[in-house]
Specification:
The chain is α+β, with helices and mostly antiparallel strands. The chain has one domain: Peptide Deformylase, CATH 3.90.45.10. It has 3 helices and 7 strands, in the order αβββββββαα. The strands form 2 sheets. The chain has a 5-stranded antiparallel β-sheet with strand order 1-2-3-6-7. It has a two-stranded antiparallel ribbon with strand order 4-5. The longest helix has 23 residues. The protein is globular, with a radius of gyration of 16 Å.
Length: 191
């Protein structure tokens, strides 16, 4: 397994739509494994292939908590086949939008159909944090970031801050200064 670099907004690759996976083969499983290792290292609870520069419809999740035990989930070609009418608001963050959080309303419960790590079709009923995380990661596959769900004023403010941080990091690297690793302070919010 290998750690992959995580793209950060406003990288234009994050706005592209991902292509379906034809089959879950050794290359896709390797991508899934590398993504999972990268997600754990970040730390986060979900990661989509476009966030590591692969325009494939692949996501990995692990929201294990005391009250919820899912273990790592590997999904190729995930699609929401059913969503509740009731929405829930959750404060979301993202490994591609480091250190920024905002409330996002999404359906409270969803049913997702996907190919698992072995290429078998599965369906999973998701609620609570898992439902939010699945929807957040599927958005990435369609070129949508959580900040696309908030006001344009707040989104533009966040993007300006990220661009400024990127320029400062590039300047520090050019000057040979050590750079601190970007890490989410609360991995539960870093989807």
């Amino acid at each position: 397994m290998a750690l992959l670099p995580i793209l950060t907004a406003p990288d234009p690759r994050l706005k592209k739509k991902s292509l379906p996976v034809e089959t879950v083969d050794a290359d896709v499983r390797q991508l899934m494994d590398d993504m999972l290792e990268t997600m754990y290292d970040a730390p986060g609870i979900g990661l989509a292939a476009p966030q590591v520069g692969a325009l494939k419809r692949v996501i990995v999740l692990d929201i294990d908590r005391e009250e919820t035990k899912t273990g790592p989930l590997f999904m190729a070609n995930p699609e929401i086949v059913e969503a509740s009418d009731d929405d829930v608001i959750y404060e979301e963050g993202c490994l591609s939008v480091p250190d920024h959080y905002s409330d996002v309303a999404r359906p409270e419960n969803v049913r997702v159909r996907y190919l698992d790590r072995d290429g078998k079709q599965q369906e999973l009923a998701c609620e609570g944090l898992l439902a939010t995380c699945v929807q957040h990661e599927i958005d990435h596959l369609d070129g949508v970031l959580f900040i696309d769900h908030i006001s344009s004023l707040k989104r533009n403010m966040i993007l300006r801050k990220l661009l400024k941080a990127r320029k400062e990091k590039e300047r520090d690297e050019a000057e040979g200064k050590p750079s601190a690793k970007d890490q989410a302070k609360d991995p539960e919010h870093a989807l």
